[in-house]
Specification:
Layout (H helix, E strand, L loop, with lengths): L1 H8 L12 E4 L5 H14 L7 E6 L10 H10 L2 E7 L3 H9 L3 E3 L23 E5 L3 E5 L7 E4 L4 E4 L7 E4 L3 E7 L2 E4 L9 E6 L3 E4 L2 E4 L12 E6 L2 E6 L2
Parallel strand pairs: 1-2, 2-3, 3-4, 6-8, 7-9, 8-10, 9-11, 10-12, 11-13
Antiparallel strand pairs: 5-6, 12-15, 13-14, 15-16
């Protein structure tokens, strides 16, 4: 009886996790300038602006008294949902807390490995995950719907398929030696040199350093093809590997 009462009294548990999050890196503190640029972004990729949570990075600003409330209002008007602020002075931190936002310290530079695993040398597709000092992490097997496989440091290599509803993410590049039908996110800590490589493209979503492209935005001629994805001028560039 006591055990059942203890279970009933538990309303939640805390768990560590790593969720993909778009970082909006501010280079201007002018809300109107931000508004104008967001309006242009909406016209380019309206599917992205659907109540997307974002972290506002103010590390490149020298604004101890940032008009944070106005900037958040501009974001929400364009269907972006600010959830936290990264960087800034103590007044910025206090403003974030007053607005009900979280606060993160400035991002530290993180090295990433660049060595890739050739397809010819790929191991047999047994379902297991192993760590590697050169590529970050190798996952062998199918990443199934609802499953998330991550490499917090370096690259992620998946020797198998990524099913719809599954998610793979890495601090560096993402390599999928099989069909990519779920979500793939590279450069999750802001590495703009990261890429995404797959043998067969059907991705629900692609992301590099917080820049997104959804399935409906991908050139149909690239679907079902081996491709590489790179970041150029804040846009995802997808090209065939064939």
């Amino acid at each position: 009886m006591s055990l059942n009462m203890d279970r009933a009294a538990s309303a939640f548990t805390f768990k560590g996790g790593m969720l993909p999050m778009t970082v909006m890196e501010l280079t201007s503190a002018d809300p109107e300038q931000i508004r104008a640029q967001l309006a242009g972004k909406v016209s380019q990729s309206p599917a992205f602006f659907q109540h997307t949570p974002v972290v506002l990075s103010v590390e490149r600003l020298d604004e101890p008294h940032l008009a944070l409330e106005r900037i958040c209002a501009v974001c929400r008007a364009h269907k972006l949902l600010p959830v936290a602020v990264r960087g800034g002075t103590d007044p910025v931190k206090q403003s974030a807390w007053a607005l009900g936002l979280g606060w993160f310290p400035p991002q530290e530079a993180r090295p990433r490995a660049v060595e890739e695993v050739p397809l010819a040398d790929a191991p047999s597709p047994e379902v297991e995950a192993t760590a590697s000092p050169t590529v970050g992490r190798i996952y062998r097997g199918t990443v199934r719907s609802g499953q998330q496989i991550s490499a917090p440091e370096g690259d992620l290599v998946v020797v198998g398929a990524v099913n719809p509803g599954a998610e793979v993410l890495a601090a560096g590049s993402v390599h999928v030696y099989g069909p990519l039908r779920g979500r793939a996110l590279g450069g999750i800590h802001g590495d703009r040199q990261a890429g995404i490589f797959c043998q067969e493209l059907h991705a629900e979503l692609l992301s590099l350093a917080g820049n997104y492209k959804r399935l409906e935005d991908i050139d149909p001629r690239l679907l079902s093809q081996p491709v590489q994805v790179q970041l150029r001028d804040d846009q995802l560039n997808i090209s065939s590997l064939g």
